[in-house]
Design goal:
The protein is 26% helix and 27% strand. By secondary structure, it is an alpha+beta fold. It contains eight helices and 15 strands. The strands form four sheets. It has a five-stranded mixed sheet, with helices on both faces. It starts with 8 loop residues before the first helix and ends with a helix. A hairpin with a 5-residue loop joins strand 13 and strand 14. Helix 4 packs across helix 5. The chain has two domains: 210 residues, Bira Bifunctional Protein, Domain 2 (BirA Bifunctional Protein, domain 2); 56 residues, SH3 type barrels (Roll), CATH 2.30.30.100. The protein is globular, with a radius of gyration of 18 Å.
Length: 282
């Protein structure tokens, strides 16, 4: 079992705290419970074995022993809409950490058979995925709670396939070990705690969103490619144009009209073009 989780000197110097668990149901759930108890935030809840993790839209997250599950609890003094952009900060921090433990190299793969347009070995997929050689290696989930007089609480959950990954997924998946990395979950977390500080400083309580957006676009996959976005029943198709100042996805349709999307499931390439997309996406 992975043990020995520790914060980087930069994170310690910036006032972050850590609590690690041999095994836990959900690090996000623990973080939200701590928020309800009045925790001031800037605390990481970390484990190498999460048994009840969850992803976006309530989907289960397969947290196998030896993989990383970490949640950062923050209490930002911002509006809820601004706090939502912390998902992009988390993706950047995780991408930087992955590059630190296993240097990036260029590849020519994106999910669903598309063509890579930027990104590199660890590329960013809107809204908050980090892909490894075009396959899903991680998941990021933001959950919020209003803490009364204590204000907003944001639990930023990050799960990474370090030593194993599920095989029965509707999309390509991988883990760092399969990619040749020799790092452990604790090694990756140490790098993550360091990289997160840098990207939080860039964010500046939302005042630095322009810089966050620019950095995200530099590492984005699929820019200029055909895209299909599942909005939970309605499909939007077109070209992945950019993300706007609010980090909404901008899709340009065949008629030239632009659609801005705040949340949805993104598919590239063959799936994006498939007429029976709904059946394939489920």
């Amino acid at each position: 079992m992975t043990a020995g989780f520790a914060l980087s000197p930069t994170a310690l110097g910036d006032g972050f705290r850590i609590e690690s668990f041999t095994e836990v149901g959900s690090t996000n759930q623990v973080a939200l419970e701590r928020a309800g108890q009045g925790d001031p935030g800037k605390i990481w809840l970390v484990t190498g074995h999460q048994t009840g993790g969850r992803g976006r839209r309530g989907r289960p997250w397969d947290g196998r022993p030896g993989n990383l599950a970490a949640t950062l609890l923050l209490r930002p003094k911002v509006e809820l809409a601004t706090a939502a952009s912390l998902g992009f900060v988390a993706a950047l921090g995780l991408r930087d950490a992955l590059q630190a433990v296993m240097p990036s190299r260029s590849v020519s793969i994106v999910p669903d058979g598309g063509d890579l347009r930027g990104g590199g070995r660890f590329a960013l997929k809107w809204p908050n995925d980090v892909l490894a050689d075009g396959a899903k290696v991680s998941g990021i989930l933001l959950e919020t709670a209003q803490g009364g007089r204590d204000g907003l609480a944001v639990a930023i959950g990050i799960g990474v396939n370090v030593v194993d990954h599920p095989r029965d997924t509707p999309y390509p998946a991988t883990d760092l070990s399969a990619m040749g990395a020799g790092c452990s979950a604790s090694d990756l977390f140490f790098a993550l705690s360091d990289a997160f500080v840098d990207n939080l400083r860039l964010w500046q309580d939302g005042r630095g969103m322009s810089a966050v957006r620019d950095k995200w676009l530099q590492g984005a996959t699929g820019l200029g490619s055909q895209i299909a976005v599942d909005l939970g029943g309605r499909i939007v198709r077109g070209v992945f144009e950019t993300i706007d100042s609010d980090c909404h996805l901008v899709v340009r349709g065949q008629d030239g009209e632009e659609t801005r999307i705040a949340a949805g499931d993104v598919h590239f390439g063959a799936v994006a073009s498939a007429r029976n997309f709904k059946a394939e996406a489920r």
